[in-house]
Amino acid sequence: MTALPRMDTTPSACPACAVVPSAQRLAALSAAAGGRIMLSLPGVHCAACISTVEGGLASLPGVRSARVNLTLRRVSVDAEPAVLTETLILALNRLGYEAHELDAGLLSATETDRQGRDLLMRLGVAGFSMMNVMLLSVAVWSGAEDATRDMFHWISAAIAIPTVIFAGQPFFRSAWAALKAGRLGMDVPISLAIILASSISLYETAKGGHHAYFDAAVMLTFFLLAGRYLDHRTRAVARSAAEELAALEVPRAIVLRDGTEQVLPVSAVSVGDLVRVRPGGRMPVDGIVTEGSSEVDRSLLTGESLPVYAGPGTVISAGEVNLTGPLTVRVSAAGKDSSLHRMADLVAIAESARTRYTSLADRAARLYSPGVHLLSFGAFAAWMWITGGDVRFAINISAAVLIITCPCALGLAVPAVVTAASGKLFRKGLLIKHGTALERLAEVDTVVFDKTGTLTLGMPEPTNLQDHPIEVRAVAVALARASSHPLAMALAAAGGGAAEVSGIVEVPGYGIEGQWRGRRVRLGRAGWTGAKPLDVTATYLSLGAASHAFTFADRLRPGAEAAVQALASQGKKVLLISGDAEGAVRDLAQRLGITNWTAGALPAEKAAAVARLSAQGHRVLMVGDGLNDTAALAAAHVSISPASALDAARVASDIVLLGQDMAPIGDAARIAAQATRRIKENFAISILYNVVAVPVALVGLATPLAAALAMSLSSITVSLNALRLK
Amino acid sequence: MTILGILIPVSLLLGGIGLAAFFWALKNRQYEDPQGDASRILTKDWDDRPKP
């Protein structure tokens, strides 16, 4: 069975194409995507990276071409079907780049890109007509009169009206949706301003009036579309990357039925089935071992870094990893009832408990929308009364008020800051999944770390090799080379030369046994080798009567120290809460200088600890990767998980760390605080503009020139302010 | 002022050409990887001859 996650080459791979108008084009697209492998490359960042990656991949046999997309940090490889993704990933690792496979079938290229291109097209049209209308308007402002002015107004109308109808659609649509739902969103005043400005100007033009606001209507559309496009881009990048990451694991199980092995989706497995789990495989279901013995790695579920023995009768849970020997498991719970799903329920509860955070922009919009409408209507009513019923003049004033107060700061400044900040963080390898994650991150004062898989890589490293005589080490290495157990592999990699040991056999679940100089030697669990167990991760070697303990420590994730230090220096409280044994947690806490640590915490206790901190008024950032962290991730104010984390953890977290390096977390907190400050500054700037400009509009002195100046000045200032982010 | 009768259509035409070029670029997916394109200009690959 070759279950290569590759796209079908047949155009009929896309059943929905039949109903899409441009079905042919789409079919052609998906056909072109066939035979393509998509890899996520969190490490590429420069021109040299592009040539290294593309050149390195193209030199592999069977690879036709490779193209790096630096914006999305991924490479698309066009290769013959025989080329395996693993080969490419290995080649990239040799070049010094981390690579993860992405599911090309799930690439949302068509959908999100169509939206993005659609917005960009409207933006282009708005920009074109803004320039032309402005050209004509400047002529009017500088003194064109009578027939010339009317002609200029008519030409402006001919350009502006179709533009507004075409380019303003995103606003009209969402305003209409908001009105239908009985809400007053941001887009209602925007649409009203655009429509009112255009129709008033058309009326004035027809009457040969002096003032037309065509330029204002088009400029408004342009600036707000720019904001909308930036917003879309940030979200599209995050969404597509998150979706592709989520597609990494395909849940399947090998089920024994009628004496044959069948590969079935986990949803098709029922209670009582026998499921086979190969070494290295993840348990797809809950169950009881009926055959075979092995060791299982529970770190993702419980945070324990030490593998646990599993033999007939052992109860195992979905999500654990089988390490040494094949196991046959009788299913006791599958699908919705499995412990994986119960964990997911825990997440759902924690998420519903999370106070719904309203972003700064939303809070501002809530005040803004009714305020603007009241102001504009008030101006209309007041001038009707003052002028004794001059509708034309009163409507002109209220349109001017709407145009001048139009929310360029809300619509452009916030997306500009968020785009600048998330772009910066994306380049550092952080993916912002949630729109308000940055704002929430800025408020954090307490950081809770998980240990296994988060601060450490879940890769053991021998710590006391030098304490053993060379001979003992050589025997241990010889035995360790025969096993694929993580401790054995670490020992074999670090130990140096091997002794001559004959008759090596691996006893799954216990260790490795062999003959050395006529004596039986064993490497494995304490009980099996006759050694006294220590409270740290260790494996034991029995050499005749004597036994030696090889201790291990989990390798630190690169940048973990830097991240902890950076967070501490920003005045944040750093906590370590782990499900692992006390010894291992204490060691790590000392290494990183974390004084506040907890060991042996159950998943519910982690979530409770986070909830307790929140109840004390702390804003908690949770960083974790395992299923046991998921509830805590969801309960925290904001959460980060590494790309190596389980689906559930990544889904529950707001920010995903794409690379291995953890140092960017410190920067993220700093940049988030800065970005929030910029957003607030931008609000202040636009309020200032309104304080100056609105009275002018209210007394009826706002000419189209004043409106144009106020609008473009405020838009440009807030955008420049957004770019000051460092 | 009759010159306006020529200049305005000319300016609209030129702007229109720019808009058409923008549409063409958009349709040809020239905006898929702005960062990559900005970096690619710095590489020495294919400096002496175009990519086949």
Describe the structure.
The complex is a heterodimer of chains A (726) and B (52). Chain A is built from 25 helices and 26 strands. Chain A is an alpha+beta fold. Chain A has a seven-stranded mixed beta sheet with strand order 14-26-25-24-15-22-23, with helices on both faces. In chain A, strands 6-5-7-13-8-11 form a six-stranded antiparallel beta sheet, with no helix packed on it. Chain A has a six-stranded antiparallel beta sheet with strand order 16-21-20-19-18-17. In chain A, helix 21 packs parallel to helix 22. Chain B is an all-alpha fold. At the A-B interface, helix 2, helix 4 and helix 5 of A face helix 1 and helix 2 of B.
Average pLDDT of chain B:
84
As an assembly, this protein is heterodimer
The side-by-side strand order for the widest beta sheet of chain A comes to: 14-26-25-24-15-22-23
Q: Structural class, judged by helices and strands of chain B?
A: mainly alpha
Question: Which chains share the greatest interface?
Answer: A-B, 25 and 25 residues
H/I helix tally of chain B: 2
Order of helices and strands of chain B: HH
Inertia-based shape of chain A: elongated
Content of β-strand of chain A: 15-25%
Percent of residues in helices of chain B comes to 55-70%
How many H/I helices of chain A?
Answer: 25
